[in-house]
Structures are given as structure tokens and as C-alpha cells.
Automatic annotation (TrEMBL):
Keywords: Cell inner membrane, Cell membrane, Disulfide bond, Electron transport, Membrane, Oxidoreductase, Redox-active center, Transmembrane, Transmembrane helix, Transport
InterPro entries xrefs: DiS_bond_form_DsbB/BdbC, DsbB, DsbB-like_sf
Classification of source organism: Bacteria, Pseudomonadati, Campylobacterota, Epsilonproteobacteria, Campylobacterales
Similarity comment: family membership: Belongs to the DsbB family. DsbI subfamily.
Protein name: Putative protein-disulfide oxidoreductase DsbI
Main location: membrane
Domain of life: Bacteria
Length: 195
């Protein structure tokens, strides 16, 4: 596989994850995103667009390096915010009120850009940190699949809900880690000349 193609796949993968979080979990299953979830989503978008930017400007070394910096920034900060959310999940699971720290009511983005006001459906925090179960409006009628999934995630989002295995923060750590590892592989492929 070529390095350039791998960057495209990484970018698409990151943006696909954001789309699943927004369209399926937030809009279809009524899981309200908390501030930490919004930060994770924000850094996934940065990493995703950084990877696509790298693929577009693959042969222009300065823009390529800029893309690497943007991608790395999104990936590293995404892991940091995911770790914070995981700490909050663990504190809630252990009924430790002192472990729930750092979750604001409103996200603060770099350069004070109010993304939550510019694109509220994607970046506005409407949930509480560490509580990622569906919050369903009373007047909503469900289709059978929607009703099944809402019931499945009633105790919170888990990769395997019946076992409560891998919460939303942990899967985010895994996603960012995979993206960063694949980014490193792509850099190595470029150095070895597999463009």
C-alpha cells in the first residue's frame, strides 16, 4: 500500500467515526454529547482533515509537514481528552464525586472560535460528562431497530453492551492510537520511497 493512499484511508476513517457519533448515536439514539465528547469529536475532525490535507499536498514538503503537525496535534490531543473522559467514567462507576474534574458546561476551542455556536449540531455540548446513555424525548415514536438499540445502550455506550466492555472513552483512545500508528507507518513508507 502506498503512503499517500494510507493517509486518505486514515482521514476517511476519522471522519467516518465522527459521522457515526453524530448521526447514529447523537441524532438517532439520543445520546447527548458532553464537553469531553465534543473535544474528542473536534480532535477527530482535526486529525481526519490533517490526514486528508497530507494526501492532497503529498509532494509539497512544507505543506506535507504542516499536515503532519495538524494530524499529530489532533491525534495527541484526542488521546488526552479521551483519557480525561475515561477518568470521569471510572469515577462515576466507582461513585467517586471527586474524580469528576475538568468537565465544563461549554467547550472552549483554540483561538476562541465558538464552534459550538457556528455548528451547534456537531459541537454543542448537551450532555453530562461520563453519562453517555440515551436521553429520549417523551413524544418520540421509535422504529423497531431504534427501540432495540436504545434499550441496548440504556446503561451507557459500550462496544459490547451486554458485557459493559470498552466504554466510549476507551474506544476513542483506541481509534486515536490506531490513527497515530497508521500515520507513523505512512511516514516510514514515505521515507522508504513507497509513495
Amino acid at each position: 500500500m502506498s503512503s499517500k493512499r494510507l493517509w486518505i484511508y486514515i482521514g476517511i476513517f476519522m471522519l467516518f467515526c465522527v459521522s457515526i457519533a453524530h448521526f447514529i448515536f447523537q441524532n438517532y439514539l439520543y445520546m447527548r454529547p458532553c464537553v469531553q465528547c465534543i473535544y474528542i469529536r473536534y480532535y477527530m475532525i482535526i486529525a481526519g482533515f490533517g490526514a486528508i490535507f497530507i494526501a492532497i499536498f503529498y509532494k509539497q514538503i512544507l505543506l506535507y509537514i504542516f499536515g503532519i503537525l495538524v494530524f499529530s496535534y489532533g491525534g495527541i490531543w484526542g488521546i488526552i481528552e479521551s483519557l480525561k473522559l475515561n477518568t470521569i467514567h471510572q469515577a462515576i462507576a466507582n461513585a467517586n464525586p471527586f474524580g469528576v474534574k475538568g468537565c465544563l458546561d461549554k467547550p472552549i476551542f483554540e483561538l476562541n472560535i465558538a464552534w459550538d455556536e457556528i455548528l451547534p449540531s456537531i459541537f454543542k455540548a448537551t450532555g453530562q460528562c461520563g453519562l453517555d446513555m440515551p436521553v429520549v424525548p417523551l413524544d418520540v415514536k421509535f422504529d423497531p431497530i431504534q427501540a432495540y438499540l436504545i434499550e441496548l445502550y440504556q446503561d451507557g455506550w459500550y462496544l459490547i453492551p451486554p458485557l459493559k466492555l470498552i466504554n466510549m472513552a476507551q474506544i476513542s483512545i483506541i481509534i486515536f492510537s490506531i490513527a497515530l500508528i497508521l500515520g507513523l507507518v505512512s511516514l516510514i513508507l514515505r521515507v522508504k520511497g513507497r509513495k
